[in-house]
Amino acid sequence: MMSKALKGTVAAAAGVMLGLSGVAAAQAQDEEPTPSGASGTVVEEPGIRLHGETQDPTAVMLGLDLGDGETRTVYCIQITVGLEDSLIHEERPWEDIPVEDLPLVLGVLLNGYNGANAAELLEAAGVAAENIDPFTADQVAYAGTQAAIWELTDGWEITAADPTEGDAGVDTAVLAVHDYLIANSEPVEEPDFEPYFEVDDSEAVTDGTVVGPFTVSTNFTSVEFSQPEGATVVDENGDAVTSFADGQGFYVEFDEAASSTVTLTTDTITWTTPAGRTFVPVDAEGADVEGQRLILAEEHTSEYAAELEFEIVVEEVPSESPKPQLPVTGSSLTYVASIGGAVLVAGVVAMVLMRRRAARADWGSDA
């Protein structure tokens, strides 16, 4: 007896570069992949001078200019090293950053000031009603967060009796934010910055013209696609779906019960950049320069035009069972994109991620 069973392969044939400003540009199938990583220029705004046991640093409010009109909040993670504010800062993995307790720092960042939540943070710390003139809530929230970070990265201790250059209300508010973050933040491991999209077929069976379920595993926020020719992608209720998210199950309903192949092509991919990325100053040749290391404090989400194709092949295979539903055979449908993306395997699928705007290899220069 012959019964249909699913067989499929998915392979990457193009490199992928992921930058802080989003998915930039993958190279053509026969080209070398573009170097990965994000970069930006430092933007400074006035902050609050803090008083410490060993030194009195100013919590200058720092951001990274993405080169597209957006600036993202960052913090210093090396209090004893000077800020090279005139240099481009490039992304580096945690393993390349000579700083202790980065998991705890990320825990503080996720609870601390991220550029848009000053009022909520002061409320959580119990100091929303304090008189903080002449400073702003943003400056106070940033200073308290920076003080907590410096305690973790450099062992710096804020002076409880006179913590800031400000009056009593400012002292109380900054110290309260610091204390709240130290007391309420748990360590968080370095996020997975490599984009991936996987489809698991281990539970899939055939039932007439319907094959599935498949389960999506991805760190893309959303993957939108067009329905393929000769089949329809449906959910467990049989309703058509046009997007995937992490953990989502789906089925493929073929137009007819025959051996066939379906190709799925994405329209857009939504990527959320997580907090916790670290950056170092570099010279004109891209070599690391001694200077303050910075850490990203906020996430952001962007949508990009993209194409991601993979094939699902249904073919006749021998079976010893007369049951209408058979376990799926063949390799798992898996796509994993890596930053810089060397070719994973030769195969039937190419992934090309392109920005809606002009493709850039970093925030401020053309690829």
Automatic annotation (TrEMBL):
Keywords: Membrane, Signal, Transmembrane, Transmembrane helix
Residues spanning the membrane: 333-353
Boundaries of every Thioester domain copy: 74-186
Protein name per UniProt: Thioester domain-containing protein
Superkingdom of source: Bacteria
Signal peptide: 1-28
